[in-house]
Each structure stands twice: as structure tokens, then as C-alpha cells.
Amino acid sequence: MIALALTIIAAYLVGSIPFGLILTRAAGLGDIRQIGSGNIGATNVLRTGNKGLAAATLALDLGKGLVVVLLARADLAGIAAVAVVAGHIFPPWLRFNGGKGVATAAGAILAYVPPVGLAAGATWLVVAAVTRYSSLAAIIATCAAPLYAWAFTRAPGPTVTILVIALLVLWRHWGNMVRLVHGEESRIGAGKGG
After folding, report:
1. CA angle, residues 103, 32, 188, in degrees to nearest 5
2. Which of 5-14, 71-80, 150-159, 179-188 has the lowest mean pLDDT?
3. Strand, helix or coil at 167?
């Protein structure tokens, strides 16, 4: 029980580090929450015009998910994966209003069940390349991830864990879904949304 509690707390706190906000402030670009969609993730950081900063945000958000799960005890890796994503989405430092969890979820899933992470990442890349909608790519890849988990593992544990992560990410994309339906969502590299 102590190991479980420490894993959840540590993973949540690492997940809650808002790298997009920290990097944009350090670069003198102000509060990323006042730019574009107001999100703290890499897609919105890209709207500052600083591609290097966006890439760094993506790498760090993905990296925290990856590292937390890799460092977790094998039997607690699934719990760590959920907790690190929850920390990114609900950081206490930002009044529990954080990012959308895509990069952090990608890193966590890649460490937890590598084939699922790779398949979901490939799905994101294909959809994003074809449609130029980052949010649509994230939604489709997120929906596919639990299916990939079942296809690759045939085990309820990883499948349910990845389903929980998917539901968290999808919940944070509700606004994007509404904008997509109404044709108001912005494409990659332009305007507001993400």
C-alpha cells in the first residue's frame, strides 16, 4: 500500500510539471495560457512561432510520461501511467486546469506497452498529415489505443488501463470535438483551437 501511494503521488506530481508554461515564460513569451487556445501543450506553444520551443515542450511532456512509467515498479506501471497523465491534465499549480494529455499519454503508453504506443503514434502522424488537424489526430489515435492494447496483449489489465487514459484525454478534447463538428477547429499551424 505504501508503494502504491508513493507511486501515485510521485507520478502525479511529475505529470503536473507544466513544461509549456515554464518554457514560454523563460523564453520571454509570456503566459502561454493567454495565447491561441490557452492550452499549455506543444500544439499551442507552436502558435508562438517558436518551433524549437514547441519541440522541447513535446519532448518534455512525452518524456515525463515515459520516464515515470519506466521507473515504476513493474506491477505498478499501469497505475503510474494513469497518474502521470492525470497530473498533466489536472495540475494543482494551475488550479487543476492543465494540458490535454496527448504527449504525456503517448510517453506513458510507449513505456507501458511499446507496440501500442508506436501504433497510436503512427495513427496520429497519418491523421495529422492527411487532415492537418492535431486535435482530430489525437482523438482518433486515443480512441484506437485501447483497441491496439487488446489486439497486442489480449489482456484486460493493459487494455483497461489504456482505456482509462484514453477517457481522460478524450474528456479534455470535448471542446475540440464540438469545434470539429461545427467546422470551427483550426488546423496545424494556424489560428486558435488545439
Report:
1. 55
2. 179-188
3. helix
